[in-house]
User: Fold this.
Amino acid sequence: MRRRKRQKQWSYKAGAKGRNRVRAFRDGRDGHYWLEWWELVEEPDGTKRRRRCRVLLRDVTTEQEAAKRADKLAAKFADMEPRASTLTIARLLTLYVKEVTPGKGPSKQDHDRRALRVWSAFFDAQPEPERRASRHPETLDRTDWDRFVEWRRSGRIPGWRPTRARAVEYDLKFMIAVLNWATGRQENGLPLIQRNPWATEIRRSQRWEMPREPSPRRPAMQDWIRDGLIRHSPHWQFSAALILERETRRRNSAIRRLVWSDIDLDAGTIRWRAETDKAGRENVTPLSRRAIELLRTLPSRGIGAAPVFPSSTDPATPTSRHTFQTWLRRAKARWLRSIDDEQERARVAFALRGLGFHAEKRAGVRDPRFRSLPPKVQEELAGTNWETLRRIYDDVSVDEMRAALVRAGA
Assistant:
């Protein structure tokens, strides 16, 4: 016997999910109309839980009447909810920095607190009172996005200088992280915000663009520049880190946090721990002959968890990135002061402009010998996805293009 296909039940939803949602529906068995919603109730022990409530609409006979009753009840619940009027952008930012930021690393904490000051200054400077930080976070829109990008890059935010696209991107991602967190953060059993106004699907559908440099400068560390910096090195750790970064093609953050238990000089290998790797994965790579010779002569030789680059204030911890950046600035300044010829000083100063530790990794992965290795080998050695190596790091000089054309007979 064939079963009779059940007729689809009529249903209508009013209000926002998780806040004042009310559903009107018709019971398929007797045709009666009902209203259904969830409400927060307190148990005798003080805990709170959500309970489903239903009411029969005895005097309602049409779908239109049931939908009107649902809209009316949802509006009543919205008027009873004080959270939407008390939550502001300023309070949301403060909550995030208070609850989420302490669980991050020191550098991320510094960025979060700096981003909080940037966004607070931005909202305080808005010419329209309704666009300041005293409004609800769900009112953020495309105008706020575009205006922040423009003001941050041009230095129109009071107290903050003009900056490049990468810094603006970091600040935007901070606000996106705050809004994403707010949709899941519960207060009185309900999320802080019901809708993320800067959700990924909204930004994609409306083609909101992250600021990008039209032609970003990604310099590589040329041999003569590295030799000059090493000659004017203010500390042995600085020169040793430069050489290891070139030989291993790893980031400065991974190099300076190496411990002696990561290194096996007899086997000629080095272990990159997941907590020091940007991609969060652990792997072991071989050491070059020059890297082994360098590690054997370091004055910090130790065992176990002893840092390869120990801090001068606490030998049990690695030297901070801020100290390495200070050494880099000092090496550049020493080199420039040692040059008497004005034109030569200008040439070196231009070559050093914007040059950081990451230039050593770029130089290593742009080496033609490294570029000829299989993609998977390149990934394992450099600790970077091959597509990223090809799209971001790889670069072909004019001399290489000319040599390739000569070999091809073109």
Observations:
- DSSP finds 18 helices and nine strands in the chain.
- The longest helix spans residues 165-184.
- The chain has a mean pLDDT of 87.
